[in-house]
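Hi R.,

As promised, here are both runs. First protein below:
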Amino acid sequence: MADAATARPAGALRRLRPSGALAGVVPFFAYTTVFLLIPTLVVVIGAFLDGDNRPTLGNVEGLTQPSVVRGLTQSLILSAVTSVGGAVIGGVLAYAVSTAREGSVTRRFFSSLCGVLAQFGGVALAFAFIASFSAQGLLSVLLGRVGLVTGGGLWLYEWDKGLMLVYLYFQIPLMLIVFLPAVEGLRPQWREATETLGGTTWTYWRRVAAPILFPSFVGATLLLFTNAFSAYSTAKALVPQANPLLPLQIGGALSSEVILGQENLGKAMALAMVVVVALVMTLYAWIDKRASRWMTR
């Protein structure tokens, strides 16, 4: 009995001893704490403080200002249009790539290419479009000589024209990368079963493939929405202050480019973005969980 009583605390101590696996995730938790948790707390707390660090709701009430509402509205429209457009085009391309033989040069080429294009953004992407489509851009000059392009390339600096095209540049390949595994999860036996029962290709897509792919498609679209909604550098390099977007307004408030003492209002706008992104990603996680049930059956 004494030996058993002695062994029980020793076993409990061994269970409480940190394992090597726990030590391996410490850098991840440290990175998450420094670059995600602490900035989020700074934004949430600062959104409810005034310039003298006293509690206030004035910053949140400032979100109803016409300029802030306009920036939020334009950001939502930009994100929605580019996410839906990128999802549709990228989804079609994902299906086209999935028809190639597995391991073929075509599939590997397009997968690698989309992996590069999806990460090509920021100021470098904006400069590439300016060098190609601005008033003195290479393609604008060449196409202008044959009368195919007019307007001097000013459309490139408008949020509802040029910026949407630039965003689609990285939204489409990102959709292909995210949606391709779901398309590849369609089993040939499902099409064969449909044809055996007398169904056509349209019947297969309408009654089998589309219901299975729909949750994954919607989830990928939400991911694209979040990606566009939080983009900053590309819009900063292209869009003037006359056409504000919420991320640019936050940057301007934090740097006091327009009015001094607007830092906490910028944090309130950032809090609004956090809320929108949190809602979208929560919906995405729920949809992704439901979609994974089909892919694992």
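And here is the second one, sequence first, then its structure tokens:
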Amino acid sequence: MTTAPTKQKRQLLADPAMTESTPGSEFAQAASLGSGGEDVTVSFRAYLPTAFPLFADRPRYTVRQLMKMATIRDGNARYVHEPRPERDRREVSGTTFATSPEAQFKPTLGEAELTDIGVSLPVPPGLLEHPRLLASFIDYRLLVRFGTTENQVLLHGSDDGKVPGLVGLPGSRVSRTEREPVDLLTDAAAMVEETGGSCDGIVAHNAVYWQAVESGLLGKLAEAGIRISRTRMIARNQVLLGDFRAATTFLDPEISTLTLRRGAAEDGGDLLEASSRMGLAVHLPQHLVLLSQEGAGA
């Protein structure tokens, strides 16, 4: 049975914006005060994946962290979109502004839609009797899965089509090669900048990331101000490079929920669900370059 007075659950929160606490501790407190056997829903004025505790002392960039962030009101958001015109697809800039690709960009007004993304986990039997363990389970296990789901959505799009995926994004550029992607990262970074951007981020598979560590390239990229987001949500034979902060804005209306659903798991047990609302504005798709190794498996 779903808890009717959701408003009461919100009132129980000591820190709904999570300025001093964590989603897990806030939810465990609310769940412990609820009556047994009922669903529990708790709302937050924050974006849940940002609260993953290990970000504080073990920084590992997500795709979102390569982007500009904007806190917005709930609802579709207007933004300026500047694609390259199809009639002028020059790849290399001349030595004057008039002969640069960006001289031909035509600004238009776009509208980004918001969508809810999330993840769920079955609750181990007996866990609800231990509030501290429940809090840790949410903060360390549920939220890390949420981060993986977020990377998937940003790279490949949301199921409802409201968030476009950056891999294969219309208007972005593709560089195909037979060589290992790690061998061409600096060439592709220079290619990003031919449209007037400044390459500030790379999304790569974990295997490519550690190849860059082994070769010493990772440190050199860091010196150039380039951050790498490593994730299994991109194929091993692909690397996405771009001026992420100029090209994209991650939209956050600060609407999230944690829900305990009684008996909703496949085995009849309880289920924990985390959900956050988000959107993505793509201003300059041509500032993104997908480096793809041909003839290689994903």
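A quick note on the second one: The two ends are 44 Å apart (CA to CA). Let me know what you think.

Best,
J.
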